[in-house]
Amino acid sequence: MSSELNLTVKAENAGVRIDKFISENADGITRSATAKLIEDGNVTVDGKEISKNYKCKENDEITVFIPDAKPLEARAEKIPLDIAYEDSDLLVVNKPKGMVVHPAAGNYDGTLVNALLYHCDGSLSGINGVIRPGIVHRIDKDTSGLLIVAKNDFAHIHLAEQIKDHSFHRAYQAVVYGNIR
Question: Which of 25, 35, 83, 181 has its CA 20 to 30 A from that of 161?
Answer without folding.
Answer: 83
